[in-house]
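Predicting holo structure, NAP bound.
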Amino acid sequence: MTSNRQALLKSRPFGLVTSENFEFVDTPIAEPGEGEFQVKVEAISIDPAMRGWMAEGKSYIPPVGLGEVMRAGAAGHVVKSNHPKFEVGDAVSGMFGVQQFINSNGAMVAKLDESQASLERWIAGLGMPGMTAYFGLLNVGEPKEGDTVLVSAASGAVGSIVGQIAKIKGCRAVGIAGGPEKCRYVVEELGFDACVDYKAGNLYKDLREACPKGVDVLFENVGGEIFNTELALMNVFGRIVLCGLISAYNATEMPKALTNLRFVLTQRLKMQGIIVFDFAKDYPKAIEELGRWHAEGKLKLREDIREGGIDAYPDVLNLLFSGGNNGKLVLKV
Ligand SMILES: NC(=O)c1ccc[n+]([C@@H]2O[C@H](COP(=O)([O-])OP(=O)(O)OC[C@H]3O[C@@H](n4cnc5c(N)ncnc54)[C@H](OP(=O)(O)O)[C@@H]3O)[C@@H](O)[C@H]2O)c1
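Done. Tokens:
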């Protein structure tokens, strides 16, 4: 291959992302310089956060600039190397972007052991989403044995792992997901105690049945009306892990205010946001523990791997916002 297909951010989306927001270009592949190596990107992590990275405004990371390669975590193999620590054939992951090739000096690049897991899994359950679930639940949510842990977007990359860790820690795990098939998967295959289908239209009543002792730890991935309803179920001194607000990522008007905020006061709740990158120095510990639970059959991991290459990026990203993904979404390139 002589050229590098790239997705450049052309304009900032209003509402859902479209192909019009990107320019797809073929650029010549530069030779890696001294102390650099070249990666052929094979699997791109498709994450809800990407929608935020396209937008201007205060956040935990600067937005992707117009004309720049779209930011993405990804994995692939080293195909050329002038770097003493990276050899041709090494499997690696890093923030490689939505493109086919990248030259790197090794900063923030991890070597992956393919005998332990596939490239896709290394950017899924053993990658950023797994780290988010692990540190968000254990370090921020601080679940205790017997607690009820409630998680929204429960069949997805982060939520599916949150509930399974809650079970490992002796908690009652309750999920919220869209549709009967996702709820069946969450209970029958992942082993949650219950799952509520928010699309069925009885969220508060169904949650009360699924959480008869209330909720001690809420792991929030969705926000909006779902979050507002969950607040009314919280127990005294409960903890809220604010991980994501996906229902608002494509909003074109200001979200409605929460009307149930009084429960934060009356139940003396603690709420803390989590950004997974804050825990980067402890990733090896989490990878070791998640890997062990997986090997012991206590943790099921699922990737939803889509074909279509770089040009499919906008359509594949939008699956996250329609609930079209089943597990950690990955784009093959
Ligand atoms: N803070 C961090 O460091 C961090 C890191 C990673 C991820 N996150 C956050 O974690 C959340 C989950 O991310 P993920 O990568 O694991 O994605 P995911 O759960 O695999 O996929 C997203 C899911 O969100 C649900 N969803 C989308 N729009 C919704 C809406 N309007 N109302 C209700 N549910 C909706 C859909 O599931 P249903 O079909 O069930 O509706 C969809 O499948 C996101 O909010 C993400 O931003 C945060």
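The mean pLDDT is 97.
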